[in-house]
Amino acid sequence: MTLSDTHFTDNELFHLAIAAARQQQHEDTLRHLKTLLARNPEHAEAHYLLGTAYATLGMMEEAAQSLTLALAQAPQLALARFQLGLVRLGLGQPEQASQTLQPLTTQAAEPVLQAFALGVLAIQAGDGAAAEQHLRHGIHLNTANPALNQDMQGLLEALEKMQLTDGKRPSEEEGLQVENAYLLGAYRQ
Q1: Phi, psi of 25 (to 5 degrees)
Q2: DSSP H helical segments within the chain, as ranges?
Q3: Repeat TPR: residue ranges (predicted)?
């Protein structure tokens, strides 16, 4: 006999969703999070995790909605802000992405996310060399989140593939091509 999600506490459901996400058990991840959010719609971390799960599945509109809810409920969730910025880029919303990422570029921001946000914004601005510098710096600083480093390494590889790290300034269109190619590949692996 198996227990349904209704027999678990909110905390248990959240941790089950994290475990399922780590195992790439997408159906279980979504089920646990949707059950939790039906009971507790103010659970910002669950909205964040649901947003990343949607992004992994390539459901970018849904990802943006969930990440936006997470930030509305807990503006201090810097990683949710960064992920929302990336998702907005993937949706072809560069101005909204810049607005989302801008708060992470201040001195008050966590240094890892500050470096990554500056790197993504440099790509948008067409400065491949600065993007590479910021992304490499962020990877060097980040010892707590290897998955994020893998994502940023993938972005660096996309930059290098398009030869945008050799000081050549790409057009805005080339910068968006890098971001979109990276995002679609990273979230659909």
Answers
A1: -95, 80
A2: 10-22, 26-39, 44-56, 60-73, 78-90, 94-101, 111-125, 128-141, 146-161, 172-187
A3: 44-77
Per-residue model confidence as pLDDT tens digits over 7-62: 899 999 999 999 999 999 999 999 999 999 999 999 999 999 999 999 999 999 99
Looking at residue 184, its pLDDT comes to: 43
Largest distance between two CA atoms of the chain: 62
Domain limits, the chain: 1-76, 94-189
Question: What's the CATH superfamily of 1-76?
Answer: Tetratricopeptide repeat domain (1.25.40.10)
C-alpha pair distances (Å), 104 with each of 38, 66, 68, 88, 142: 31, 19, 16, 15, 15
Closest CA to 153 of 170, 162, 171, 140: 140
Dihedral of CA 167/184/104/78: which sign?
negative
Tell me how far apart the alpha carbons of residues 73 and 44 are, in angstroms, rounded to a whole number: 6
pTM for this structure? 0.83
Q: What does the DSSP assignment read for 64-98? A: HHHHHHHHHH-TT-HHHHHHHHHHHHHTT-HHHHH
